[in-house]
Amino acid sequence: MNSPPKLPSTTNPRGHPTEFDQIIQEKSRNFVGRNFVFTAINEFLQCYSRGYFTIIGAPGSGKSAILAKYVTENPHVVYYNTEFEGKNLADEFLRNICTQLINQYSLNYNSLPDNATEGSWFLSSLLQQISEKLELNQKIIIAIDALNCIDHNSQPLGTNLFYLPRYLPDGVYFLLTRRPFLREKSGLLIETPSQSLDLADFSEENRQDVQAYIEKNLTPLPPLPYEGRGEQKNFSPLLKGEGLEEGSNIKRLIAECENNFMYLSQIINAINEGFYSEGFDFHQLPPGLEAYYQQHLQKMLDEAKEDFSIAVLNVLIQQQKAISTSAIAHIIDADEYDVEQVLENWFEFLHQQRITEENYYSLYHSSFRHWLTKQQIL
Predict the structure, then answer these.
(1) CA distance 34 to 67
(2) Architecture field, domain 18-201
Protein backbone atom coordinates (compact mmCIF):
# COMPACT_ATOMS: atom_id res chain seq x y z
CA MET A 1 0.00 0.00 0.00
CA ASN A 2 1.34 3.42 -0.92
CA SER A 3 1.99 5.80 1.96
CA PRO A 4 -0.04 9.04 2.04
CA PRO A 5 1.58 11.92 0.15
CA LYS A 6 3.70 14.07 2.43
CA LEU A 7 3.20 17.80 2.49
CA PRO A 8 5.74 19.35 0.11
CA SER A 9 8.33 21.53 1.76
CA THR A 10 8.68 25.09 0.53
CA THR A 11 10.83 28.12 1.18
CA ASN A 12 7.99 30.35 0.03
CA PRO A 13 6.30 31.95 3.06
CA ARG A 14 2.98 31.91 1.24
CA GLY A 15 3.24 28.18 0.55
CA HIS A 16 2.50 28.32 -3.17
CA PRO A 17 4.91 27.13 -5.89
CA THR A 18 7.83 29.48 -6.50
CA GLU A 19 6.84 29.92 -10.15
CA PHE A 20 3.67 31.60 -8.93
CA ASP A 21 5.82 34.28 -7.28
CA GLN A 22 7.38 35.03 -10.64
CA ILE A 23 4.05 35.58 -12.38
CA ILE A 24 2.70 37.64 -9.46
CA GLN A 25 5.70 39.95 -9.68
CA GLU A 26 5.61 40.09 -13.47
CA LYS A 27 1.89 40.76 -13.74
CA SER A 28 1.81 43.40 -10.99
CA ARG A 29 4.83 45.29 -12.34
CA ASN A 30 3.93 48.69 -13.82
CA PHE A 31 0.37 48.26 -12.58
CA VAL A 32 -1.98 51.24 -12.65
CA GLY A 33 -5.60 51.93 -11.78
CA ARG A 34 -8.37 49.30 -11.78
CA ASN A 35 -9.78 50.89 -8.63
CA PHE A 36 -13.33 50.14 -9.76
CA VAL A 37 -12.54 46.41 -9.59
CA PHE A 38 -10.96 46.55 -6.14
CA THR A 39 -13.89 48.61 -4.88
CA ALA A 40 -16.33 45.99 -6.15
CA ILE A 41 -14.34 43.18 -4.50
CA ASN A 42 -14.22 44.98 -1.17
CA GLU A 43 -17.94 45.75 -1.29
CA PHE A 44 -18.68 42.07 -1.94
CA LEU A 45 -16.52 41.03 1.01
CA GLN A 46 -18.36 43.49 3.23
CA CYS A 47 -21.85 42.59 2.04
CA TYR A 48 -21.60 38.80 2.23
CA SER A 49 -20.28 36.43 4.86
CA ARG A 50 -18.87 34.06 2.20
CA GLY A 51 -19.00 33.57 -1.55
CA TYR A 52 -17.50 33.58 -5.04
CA PHE A 53 -16.43 36.75 -6.84
CA THR A 54 -15.50 36.35 -10.52
CA ILE A 55 -13.66 38.82 -12.76
CA ILE A 56 -14.56 38.20 -16.41
CA GLY A 57 -12.67 39.67 -19.34
CA ALA A 58 -11.47 39.03 -22.87
CA PRO A 59 -7.91 37.79 -23.45
CA GLY A 60 -5.46 40.52 -22.50
CA SER A 61 -7.97 42.67 -20.63
CA GLY A 62 -5.88 42.67 -17.46
CA LYS A 63 -7.53 40.01 -15.30
CA SER A 64 -4.31 38.31 -14.24
CA ALA A 65 -2.65 41.63 -13.44
CA ILE A 66 -5.61 42.66 -11.29
CA LEU A 67 -5.45 39.42 -9.34
CA ALA A 68 -1.67 39.63 -8.97
CA LYS A 69 -1.92 43.19 -7.66
CA TYR A 70 -4.63 42.18 -5.21
CA VAL A 71 -2.44 39.36 -3.91
CA THR A 72 0.57 41.64 -3.44
CA GLU A 73 -1.59 44.08 -1.48
CA ASN A 74 -3.18 41.31 0.61
CA PRO A 75 -0.46 38.86 1.72
CA HIS A 76 -2.93 36.56 3.49
CA VAL A 77 -4.57 35.56 0.19
CA VAL A 78 -4.01 31.97 -0.95
CA TYR A 79 -3.06 32.04 -4.65
CA TYR A 80 -3.20 29.56 -7.52
CA ASN A 81 -2.56 29.98 -11.25
CA THR A 82 -3.71 27.46 -13.88
CA GLU A 83 -1.60 28.77 -16.78
CA PHE A 84 1.52 26.79 -15.91
CA GLU A 85 2.03 23.36 -17.40
CA GLY A 86 0.47 20.71 -15.19
CA LYS A 87 -1.21 23.26 -12.92
CA ASN A 88 -4.50 23.06 -14.82
CA LEU A 89 -5.30 19.59 -13.46
CA ALA A 90 -7.81 19.10 -10.66
CA ASP A 91 -5.66 16.78 -8.54
CA GLU A 92 -2.67 19.16 -8.73
CA PHE A 93 -4.87 22.07 -7.67
CA LEU A 94 -6.27 20.18 -4.69
CA ARG A 95 -2.84 19.00 -3.55
CA ASN A 96 -1.42 22.50 -3.73
CA ILE A 97 -4.32 24.44 -2.24
CA CYS A 98 -4.84 21.96 0.59
CA THR A 99 -1.13 22.13 1.39
CA GLN A 100 -1.19 25.93 1.41
CA LEU A 101 -4.19 25.95 3.74
CA ILE A 102 -2.66 23.41 6.13
CA ASN A 103 0.61 25.34 6.32
CA GLN A 104 -0.89 28.82 6.52
CA TYR A 105 -3.43 27.96 9.21
CA SER A 106 -1.28 25.42 11.12
CA LEU A 107 -3.75 22.57 10.76
CA ASN A 108 -2.79 19.24 12.31
CA TYR A 109 -1.83 17.22 9.22
CA ASN A 110 1.56 15.68 8.47
CA SER A 111 0.41 14.41 5.09
CA LEU A 112 -2.59 14.51 2.80
CA PRO A 113 -5.06 11.60 2.90
CA ASP A 114 -4.75 9.07 0.09
CA ASN A 115 -8.02 10.24 -1.43
CA ALA A 116 -7.59 13.97 -0.78
CA THR A 117 -7.83 14.70 -4.50
CA GLU A 118 -10.94 12.61 -5.11
CA GLY A 119 -13.59 15.30 -5.12
CA SER A 120 -14.07 18.32 -2.89
CA TRP A 121 -14.53 16.52 0.44
CA PHE A 122 -11.08 17.18 1.90
CA LEU A 123 -10.88 20.78 0.69
CA SER A 124 -14.34 21.43 2.11
CA SER A 125 -13.30 19.84 5.40
CA LEU A 126 -10.24 22.09 5.65
CA LEU A 127 -12.30 25.18 4.86
CA GLN A 128 -14.78 24.27 7.59
CA GLN A 129 -11.98 23.77 10.12
CA ILE A 130 -10.43 27.11 9.21
CA SER A 131 -13.81 28.87 9.30
CA GLU A 132 -14.33 27.70 12.87
CA LYS A 133 -10.93 29.15 13.85
CA LEU A 134 -11.41 32.57 12.25
CA GLU A 135 -11.71 35.57 14.50
CA LEU A 136 -14.49 38.14 14.12
CA ASN A 137 -14.29 39.82 10.67
CA GLN A 138 -11.34 37.63 9.67
CA LYS A 139 -11.56 36.16 6.17
CA ILE A 140 -9.86 33.50 4.10
CA ILE A 141 -9.59 34.37 0.41
CA ILE A 142 -8.49 31.87 -2.22
CA ALA A 143 -7.56 33.48 -5.54
CA ILE A 144 -7.54 31.32 -8.68
CA ASP A 145 -6.36 32.85 -11.94
CA ALA A 146 -7.54 31.72 -15.40
CA LEU A 147 -10.34 29.22 -14.85
CA ASN A 148 -10.60 29.02 -18.65
CA CYS A 149 -7.29 27.09 -18.72
CA ILE A 150 -8.55 24.20 -16.57
CA ASP A 151 -8.35 20.78 -18.20
CA HIS A 152 -11.95 19.55 -18.08
CA ASN A 153 -10.79 16.02 -18.84
CA SER A 154 -8.92 15.79 -15.52
CA GLN A 155 -12.16 15.23 -13.60
CA PRO A 156 -15.54 13.54 -14.13
CA LEU A 157 -18.16 15.19 -16.32
CA GLY A 158 -20.65 17.25 -14.34
CA THR A 159 -18.37 18.06 -11.41
CA ASN A 160 -17.44 21.62 -10.51
CA LEU A 161 -14.24 22.96 -12.06
CA PHE A 162 -11.36 21.95 -9.77
CA TYR A 163 -14.04 20.39 -7.53
CA LEU A 164 -14.71 23.85 -6.11
CA PRO A 165 -17.18 23.54 -3.23
CA ARG A 166 -20.86 24.00 -3.90
CA TYR A 167 -21.31 25.40 -0.39
CA LEU A 168 -18.94 27.58 1.63
CA PRO A 169 -18.70 28.15 5.39
CA ASP A 170 -18.67 31.66 6.84
CA GLY A 171 -15.56 33.72 6.25
CA VAL A 172 -14.49 31.78 3.14
CA TYR A 173 -14.27 33.48 -0.26
CA PHE A 174 -13.04 32.51 -3.71
CA LEU A 175 -11.76 35.22 -6.05
CA LEU A 176 -11.71 33.92 -9.63
CA THR A 177 -10.73 35.19 -13.08
CA ARG A 178 -11.83 33.76 -16.39
CA ARG A 179 -12.49 34.66 -20.00
CA PRO A 180 -16.07 35.11 -21.28
CA PHE A 181 -18.14 31.94 -21.19
CA LEU A 182 -21.63 30.72 -21.91
CA ARG A 183 -23.69 30.65 -18.73
CA GLU A 184 -24.82 27.07 -19.35
CA LYS A 185 -21.16 26.06 -19.67
CA SER A 186 -19.88 27.81 -16.55
CA GLY A 187 -18.64 24.55 -15.05
CA LEU A 188 -19.78 25.68 -11.61
CA LEU A 189 -22.85 24.78 -9.59
CA ILE A 190 -22.77 26.82 -6.40
CA GLU A 191 -25.32 27.62 -3.75
CA THR A 192 -23.63 30.45 -1.94
CA PRO A 193 -23.46 34.22 -2.60
CA SER A 194 -21.77 34.99 -5.91
CA GLN A 195 -21.08 38.03 -8.07
CA SER A 196 -19.42 38.61 -11.43
CA LEU A 197 -17.74 41.73 -12.77
CA ASP A 198 -17.31 41.90 -16.54
CA LEU A 199 -14.51 44.31 -17.43
CA ALA A 200 -16.21 45.02 -20.77
CA ASP A 201 -19.02 46.80 -18.89
CA PHE A 202 -16.63 49.54 -17.71
CA SER A 203 -15.38 51.10 -20.94
CA GLU A 204 -14.80 54.60 -19.54
CA GLU A 205 -12.91 53.32 -16.48
CA ASN A 206 -10.83 51.08 -18.74
CA ARG A 207 -10.03 53.99 -21.05
CA GLN A 208 -8.85 56.11 -18.13
CA ASP A 209 -6.62 53.28 -16.95
CA VAL A 210 -5.21 52.92 -20.46
CA GLN A 211 -4.24 56.60 -20.48
CA ALA A 212 -2.67 56.26 -17.03
CA TYR A 213 -0.73 53.19 -18.18
CA ILE A 214 0.67 55.05 -21.20
CA GLU A 215 1.73 58.00 -19.07
CA LYS A 216 3.46 55.74 -16.57
CA ASN A 217 5.13 53.23 -18.87
CA LEU A 218 5.91 54.92 -22.19
CA THR A 219 9.49 56.11 -21.77
CA PRO A 220 9.50 59.88 -22.35
CA LEU A 221 12.24 61.96 -23.89
CA PRO A 222 13.65 64.84 -21.82
CA PRO A 223 10.85 67.34 -21.15
CA LEU A 224 10.52 70.34 -23.42
CA PRO A 225 10.17 73.86 -22.00
CA TYR A 226 7.21 75.87 -23.21
CA GLU A 227 7.08 79.58 -22.58
CA GLY A 228 4.76 80.32 -19.70
CA ARG A 229 3.69 76.68 -19.35
CA GLY A 230 6.65 75.02 -17.68
CA GLU A 231 7.98 71.67 -18.81
CA GLN A 232 5.78 69.59 -21.09
CA LYS A 233 5.87 65.82 -21.60
CA ASN A 234 7.82 64.85 -24.70
CA PHE A 235 6.94 61.34 -25.86
CA SER A 236 9.01 59.36 -28.32
CA PRO A 237 8.84 60.78 -31.87
CA LEU A 238 7.50 57.38 -32.89
CA LEU A 239 4.25 58.36 -31.20
CA LYS A 240 4.48 62.11 -30.99
CA GLY A 241 2.67 62.97 -34.19
CA GLU A 242 1.72 66.61 -34.59
CA GLY A 243 1.84 67.52 -30.91
CA LEU A 244 3.12 66.22 -27.62
CA GLU A 245 0.81 64.18 -25.41
CA GLU A 246 -1.99 65.31 -27.70
CA GLY A 247 -0.14 63.79 -30.67
CA SER A 248 -2.15 61.89 -33.25
CA ASN A 249 -0.23 58.65 -32.67
CA ILE A 250 -0.88 58.73 -28.92
CA LYS A 251 -4.57 59.14 -29.64
CA ARG A 252 -4.42 56.34 -32.17
CA LEU A 253 -2.61 54.05 -29.72
CA ILE A 254 -5.41 54.57 -27.22
CA ALA A 255 -7.97 53.75 -29.91
CA GLU A 256 -6.05 50.82 -31.41
CA CYS A 257 -5.55 49.06 -28.07
CA GLU A 258 -9.34 48.86 -27.57
CA ASN A 259 -8.80 48.85 -23.80
CA ASN A 260 -6.67 45.71 -24.12
CA PHE A 261 -3.68 45.77 -21.80
CA MET A 262 -1.86 42.84 -23.40
CA TYR A 263 -1.80 44.70 -26.72
CA LEU A 264 -0.89 47.98 -25.02
CA SER A 265 1.90 46.59 -22.84
CA GLN A 266 3.48 44.67 -25.73
CA ILE A 267 3.46 47.72 -28.02
CA ILE A 268 4.86 50.04 -25.34
CA ASN A 269 7.59 47.56 -24.38
CA ALA A 270 8.53 47.26 -28.06
CA ILE A 271 8.73 51.04 -28.42
CA ASN A 272 10.83 51.40 -25.28
CA GLU A 273 13.18 48.60 -26.40
CA GLY A 274 13.75 50.08 -29.87
CA PHE A 275 11.81 47.46 -31.83
CA TYR A 276 10.42 50.19 -34.11
CA SER A 277 13.78 51.78 -34.87
CA GLU A 278 12.83 52.40 -38.51
CA GLY A 279 9.49 54.01 -37.78
CA PHE A 280 6.37 52.99 -35.93
CA ASP A 281 3.81 50.82 -37.71
CA PHE A 282 0.64 49.76 -35.90
CA HIS A 283 0.43 46.62 -38.04
CA GLN A 284 3.98 45.50 -37.24
CA LEU A 285 3.42 43.44 -34.12
CA PRO A 286 6.11 42.60 -31.54
CA PRO A 287 7.09 38.90 -31.38
CA GLY A 288 5.48 38.49 -27.96
CA LEU A 289 2.10 39.63 -29.24
CA GLU A 290 2.35 37.41 -32.31
CA ALA A 291 3.12 34.42 -30.07
CA TYR A 292 0.08 35.30 -27.94
CA TYR A 293 -2.16 35.33 -31.01
CA GLN A 294 -0.63 32.06 -32.20
CA GLN A 295 -1.76 30.46 -28.93
CA HIS A 296 -5.29 31.70 -29.64
CA LEU A 297 -5.27 30.18 -33.12
CA GLN A 298 -3.97 26.82 -31.93
CA LYS A 299 -6.74 26.62 -29.35
CA MET A 300 -9.42 27.63 -31.86
CA LEU A 301 -8.64 25.13 -34.60
CA ASP A 302 -10.12 21.71 -33.90
CA GLU A 303 -7.99 19.12 -35.68
CA ALA A 304 -10.99 16.89 -36.27
CA LYS A 305 -12.90 19.71 -38.01
CA GLU A 306 -10.07 22.01 -39.04
CA ASP A 307 -11.32 22.72 -42.58
CA PHE A 308 -14.77 23.69 -41.32
CA SER A 309 -13.30 25.82 -38.51
CA ILE A 310 -11.07 27.64 -41.00
CA ALA A 311 -14.06 28.34 -43.23
CA VAL A 312 -15.95 29.94 -40.33
CA LEU A 313 -12.88 31.86 -39.21
CA ASN A 314 -12.29 33.23 -42.70
CA VAL A 315 -15.75 34.79 -42.67
CA LEU A 316 -15.10 36.46 -39.31
CA ILE A 317 -11.76 37.79 -40.55
CA GLN A 318 -13.36 39.43 -43.56
CA GLN A 319 -15.98 41.26 -41.51
CA GLN A 320 -15.44 44.77 -40.19
CA LYS A 321 -18.61 44.45 -38.11
CA ALA A 322 -20.33 41.67 -36.22
CA ILE A 323 -22.06 39.04 -38.34
CA SER A 324 -24.92 36.70 -37.52
CA THR A 325 -24.70 32.94 -37.28
CA SER A 326 -27.21 32.55 -40.10
CA ALA A 327 -25.19 34.86 -42.36
CA ILE A 328 -22.01 32.86 -41.76
CA ALA A 329 -23.86 29.62 -42.49
CA HIS A 330 -25.23 31.09 -45.73
CA ILE A 331 -21.79 32.29 -46.89
CA ILE A 332 -20.08 28.92 -46.38
CA ASP A 333 -23.19 26.87 -47.30
CA ALA A 334 -23.28 25.05 -43.97
CA ASP A 335 -25.82 24.08 -41.34
CA GLU A 336 -26.50 26.92 -38.92
CA TYR A 337 -26.29 24.56 -35.94
CA ASP A 338 -22.77 23.46 -36.91
CA VAL A 339 -21.65 27.07 -37.22
CA GLU A 340 -23.14 27.91 -33.83
CA GLN A 341 -21.26 25.00 -32.25
CA VAL A 342 -17.94 26.30 -33.57
CA LEU A 343 -18.67 29.83 -32.38
CA GLU A 344 -19.65 28.61 -28.92
CA ASN A 345 -16.33 26.77 -28.67
CA TRP A 346 -14.57 30.05 -29.54
CA PHE A 347 -16.64 32.13 -27.16
CA GLU A 348 -13.65 33.40 -25.16
CA PHE A 349 -12.16 34.91 -28.34
CA LEU A 350 -15.34 36.60 -29.57
CA HIS A 351 -17.64 39.51 -28.87
CA GLN A 352 -21.27 38.45 -28.92
CA GLN A 353 -24.19 40.80 -29.52
CA ARG A 354 -27.88 39.97 -29.43
CA ILE A 355 -29.66 41.79 -32.28
CA THR A 356 -33.28 41.15 -33.24
CA GLU A 357 -33.27 37.83 -31.39
CA GLU A 358 -30.19 36.55 -33.21
CA ASN A 359 -26.57 36.22 -32.09
CA TYR A 360 -23.97 38.33 -33.89
CA TYR A 361 -20.25 37.65 -33.51
CA SER A 362 -16.93 39.39 -34.12
CA LEU A 363 -13.35 38.63 -33.08
CA TYR A 364 -12.45 40.13 -29.71
CA HIS A 365 -9.74 42.49 -31.01
CA SER A 366 -9.04 44.17 -34.34
CA SER A 367 -5.31 43.50 -34.05
CA PHE A 368 -5.98 39.77 -33.70
CA ARG A 369 -8.23 39.88 -36.76
CA HIS A 370 -5.57 41.70 -38.79
CA TRP A 371 -2.90 39.21 -37.67
CA LEU A 372 -5.10 36.33 -38.79
CA THR A 373 -5.34 37.75 -42.30
CA LYS A 374 -1.61 37.14 -42.72
CA GLN A 375 -1.59 33.51 -41.61
CA GLN A 376 -0.98 31.10 -44.46
CA ILE A 377 -3.13 28.39 -42.92
CA LEU A 378 -6.25 30.49 -43.55
Answers:
(1) 11
(2) 3-Layer(aba) Sandwich (3.40)
In this structure, are residues 199 and 178 in contact, taking their beta carbons and an 8 Å threshold? no
Closest of 172, 164, 179 to residue 193, by C-alpha = 172
Q: How far apart are CA 117 and CA 132, in angstroms?
A: 23
| 243-262 average pLDDT score | 76
Q: Please state which of the four CATH numbers 1.10.10.10, 3.40.630.30, 3.10.180.10, 3.30.70.1050 is assigned to the domain occupying 291-373.
A: 1.10.10.10
pLDDT tens-digit map of 76-89: 999 999 998 889 99
What does the DSSP assignment read for 306-369?
Answer: HHHHHHHHHHHHH-SS-EEHHHHHHHHT--HHHHHHHHHHTGGGEEEEEETTEEEEEES-HHHH
Contact indicator for 145, 64 with CB cutoff of 8 Å: yes
Are the C-beta atoms of 53 and 175 separated by less than 8 Å?
A: yes
Partners of 224 in the beta sheet?
232
d(CA 285, CA 367) in angstroms, rounded, equals 9
Domain ranges of the chain: 18-201, 204-284, 291-373
Q: What pLDDT band is residue 303 in, cutting at 50, 70 and 90?
A: low
pLDDT in tens, 37-59: 999 999 999 999 999 999 999 99
Residue pLDDT, tens place only, 100-123: 999 999 999 999 999 999 999 999
